[in-house]
Amino acid sequence: MIRKIIAIVLLAVFGLILIPFEKALDAEQKAVGLRSVAINLDLRERLGQMGFLAALSGFRSALAAVLWIEAHNAWERTEWGRMAGLFDTVTTLQPRSLLYWDMASWHMAWNASIAAIDDKTQPSEALRIRNQRQYIKLGRDYLKQGLRNNPNSAFLEERLGVLLRDKLEDHCEAGQAFLRASQLPDATPYIARFAGYELSKCPGHEQEAYDLLKKLYDEGPEQRKPSLISNIKELEKNLDIPPADRIDSPEP
Amino acid sequence: MFTRIATIARNTFTELVRQKVFYILLVFALAAIGSSIFMAQLRIEAQFQMIKDVCLGSMAIFTSLLAILATASFLPNDSEDRTIYTLLAKPVPRFAYLLGKLGGIILLLLLFTLMMSVVFCVVLWMREQSALAQIRQEFASAPAEQLQLAIKSVTDATFNINLIPGILLIFVKAALLAALTLFISTFATSALFTVMITAAIYFIGHLQATAREYWLQGADIQWWTRILIALIALLFPDLQAFNLADDMIAGAAIPWDIFVKTFALGWLYVAVYASLAAYVFAGREL
To answer: How far is A17 from chain B (nearest CA, A)?
Structure first.
C-alpha cells in the first residue's frame, strides 16, 4: 500500500515539474495553428454526447469526415437546412480545413440558392428571391468565417472573390478579395488579373484598376491575355490616358 | 540484463502476434479501401481529405485500443498460467520482466503503425493515380497552365510530408498508453479493472490541458474544486498534445522543434510510467 501511495505522490511531483513545459508546448502548438479547436459547450451542443466524447478523444477529423458524408447524403435528399447545420459542425471540428469551408460555401451559395429560386412549393417570387439571397449570403459567411480561421489563405480569398463576383455582383468587394488573394504567397497566377477586372467595374476604383492591369501588362507576354488587353483599352478611353502612354497591342 | 529484456520483449511480441491481432489490419484495410470507393462520388480534393480523415482516425483508434487491451491482459494472464512464477524464479529482476513486456508491446505497436501506414499510402496513391488520369483526360484540350494547376491541386491534396510526424505522434501516444496501462496493471486486481481505469484516464487526459489552464488561472472557485482540478492537472498526461494529426490533415504544418518536443514528451511519459510500474511491481506479492 505504501508503495502505491509513494508512486502516486511521485507521479504528482512529476506532473508538477512538467507543468511549465506542457504549458509552453501547448502555447507553441497553438501559435502555429495546432490544437485549434476549443472544447466548449457550443461544440457539445452541436455534436451531442457521443460526438463530443469522440471529438475529445482525438477522433475529431474522423468525426468530421463522417458528418461530411452525412451532409453529402443530405444534399442528395436536398435537405438544405440540415446540410447547413452539419456544415456548421464540420467546420467547427476542422476549422483549419480550407476544403470544408469552400465546399460548405459552394453548396449554400450555388446549389441551395438555385434550389430556392426554383422552389415550386413557394408561390411567391419575392420570397423565393429572398431565400435565394439568404443562401448566397450564408455561403459568403462561410468563406468569411473560414478566412477568420485561416487569415492567410489565398484559396479562400479567391473563392470569396468568385462568389462576390458571380453571385452577388459586388465588383468592389470581389476586386478587394482578389487583390488580397493576389498578395498572398500561394496565390494562383491569374488572380491579380481578376482583381484588376473587378476593380475596373467598381466606381471610383478605375485608376487603381488601370495601374494594376498596366503593371501586369508590363510584366510581359505571359500576362497579356485578350481580356487584360481589352480591359486596359476600355480603361484608357474612360480615364483619358494620353495616346503616348497607351499600350500598343491591337484590340483582341 | 539487456539480453534478458530483449528476450522477454521478443517472446511478448511473438505471443501477441500469435493472438492474431493483425486481423485488425484487415478491418483497417477494409475501412480504408471501402471509404475510398464510397468517396469516389465526392469532389477529388474532398476524397483525399476523407481518406486521410478515416485512415488516420482509424489508426488512432486501433493503436490506442491495441495498446490498452494488450497491456492490460498480460499480467493477469501470466499469473493465471503461472508463467510469471517460472520467469521470476530465474535470475530475472522484476523490472526487467516489466520492461521486456512493455518493449514487446511497443514493438508490436510500431509494426502495427507501419503496416497501417503502408495500407494508407497504397490506398491514397491508388486514388491519386486514378484522379490524375481523370484530370489528364478532362484537360486534354485545355492550356498547359490549367492542366498543371489541376495536377498540382491533386498532388498537393494527397501526400504531404506533415503526415509523417502526425503518424509518429499517433504511435508515441499509443506507446504512452501502453506504459500507463502497465503502471495501472501493477496494482490492479483484474484486466477489466485496468481497462476501465485506463479508458477513464484516456478521456480525462484529453481534458487535462483545460483543467491545467483553469487551475493556473486561479479562477474564483470552491476549494475542493480547485483541489480536484489540480489533481487532474498533476496526475494525468496531457493527451491532447499528441492529437496533432487532425490539424495536420487540414493542412497545418508542425515545426520540427515542436515535433521533437512533443515526441520527447511522449517518451518521457513512457519512461516515468514504466519506472513507477517497476517500483510498485517490486513490492507486489505474487
So the answer is: 9
In the predicted model, is pLDDT for residue B265 greater than 70? yes
Of B187, B210, B251, which is closest to A4 when you measure between CB atoms? Answer: B187
C-alpha span between B162 and B159 (Å, rounded): 9
CB B103 within 8 A of CB B9: yes
Q: Are A185 and A178 in contact (CB under 8 A)?
A: no
| CA atoms lying within 13 Å on the CB side of residue B155 | 7
A9 touches chain B (CB under 8 A): no
The tens digit of pLDDT for each residue in B70-118 reads 898 888 888 888 888 887 788 878 888 889 999 999 999 999 899 889 8
Owner of C-alpha cell 508542425: B254
pLDDT band for position B181 (cuts 50, 70, 90): very high
Q: Rounded to whole angstroms, how far apart are CA atoms A98 and A151?
A: 11
| Residue B244, burial from CB neighbour count under 10 angstroms (0-12, 13-18, 19+) | buried
List the one residue out of A219, A221, A171 whose CA is nearest residue A196.
Answer: A171
Residue tagged 483484474 (cell numbers): B190
Long-range contacts, stretch B212-217, CB < 8 angstroms, 24+ apart: B212/A19, B212/A22, B212/A23, B212/B238, B216/A19, B216/A23
The CA radius of gyration of chain B, in Å to the nearest whole number, is 23
- Residue-wise pLDDT for B2-20, tens only, equals 788 888 888 888 888 887 7
In whole angstroms, what is the distance from residue A247 CA to residue A243 CA? 8
| Alpha-carbon distances of A35 from A28, A58, B59, B244, rounded to whole Å | 10, 10, 19, 7
Mean pLDDT in residue range B216-242: 81
Residue of B nearest to A53 (CA): B203
Say how far apart CA A249 and CA A229 lie, in whole Å.
7
Helix (H) or strand (E) holding B264: helix B256-282
H-helix or E-strand containing A18?
helix A2-31
